Amino acid sequence: MLTPAPVGDRARLDDVVARIERLPISTWHVKARVVIGTATFFDAFDALAIAFVLPVLAPLWKLSSPQIGLMISVGYLGQLVGALAFGWLAQRHGRVKAMIWAVILFATMSLACAFAWSYESLLVFRTLQGLGLGGEVPIAAVYISEIAKAKGRGRFVLLYEVIFPVGLVASGLLGRWIVPHLGWHYMFLIGAIPAILVVFMQRILPESPRWLATRGRFDEAERALSYIERATEKATGAPLPQPQPVASSHDKPASWSDLFGPRYLRRTLVVWTIWFSAYLITYGLTVWLPTIYRTVFHLSLEDALQYGLITQVVGLCGTLTCALSIDRLGRRPWFALAFAGAATALCALWLIGAGTPTRVLVLVSTAFFFSSVLSIGVYLYTPELYPTRARAIAVSTATAWLRFASMIGPSIVGAMIGIGLEAVFLAFGLVAAVAAVITAVFAIETKGRVLEEISP
Description:
With about 450 residues, the chain is mainly alpha-helical. About 80% of the residues lie in helices and about 0% in strands. The longest helix has about 35 residues, at about 25-60.
């Protein structure tokens, strides 16, 4: 059973929703998005930093392949546990508090990693850091969704979410220079910068009025919403329009039926399929690509990393395309098209053969363009599918499938690569094809609808 939401005044809850829906996007919204986005940028930076540190630490500490694999895996394990734990904390204690705790945890543990003196100490610090890394992103997505009005919500949320792939690309670019020139410690020292953000998060971000209202804390919801309204009026220089009724809220306690009941079971199964399939493809391909270029096609290290970076940049283009177009195309058509596009590119590699690195680069980058649409879009879509009383735990539970996929995907490649590259690409192409059908048939459309209308 999830934490119960106190029964409150339904009319006051509806008024909170109506007042949020009348708010134009202002500089306050931009500030909030920048502050949270900066934390998310460093979340991505810290998550990938280990990839650029291990090539130095492996010979320095004489690490075996199983030890390297364990170092990578414990980070994902920590993120899995962190996503679930911080989802519960956000549902019980609030979105902003949970975000701040997650940021403090992953930033301080990044600092600890910089001073790790052995393999064992780094293993412990990376595991603890993973708790914060796994907790921050889903709760941030929930908060951004809850302060956004229905019209233009897709663009508003996803232009924030784009910062995560930007952080991944930045980690790759900076890592290639910092580690050889300054040393591996500095990657983790940079990752500790978000600790400073906590000051700004506490000053700029009020608690989610939607969450406060569903908890029956109407006085606090009024103060939080009044703060946002004053900031918006100051930014726009115009009085706000009168709130108009937009949705009728259901005042009831949260329960597992909010994930698995008659209304929500189909949504849960579909969105879990999207999370698992999208990230199975994403992590399965990107983690192995540089190694494939080096060992199969015998490219130089510089060329292999360059090819990998090209694919990351193409993926970033995919996320931007999704952010700018999802409010016009809609969620279900975009996701079904993206899965179909990834399936086509990957199955083409199986059909015509992965005979040259250029062919692999072009078609895998095409697949990654589409999988990046899914990887970012699902962070928008999942919070829309669930009521406020259960949104944080529902999103965090869904992101757990991301962590499973990130652990399983690279292992599948490792197990199948001996059969041939074509078999690997066919396997991922079939996963994408099945997910395309499931999404096209069973996903619901949420474009332009108020959260309380979608999920009463």
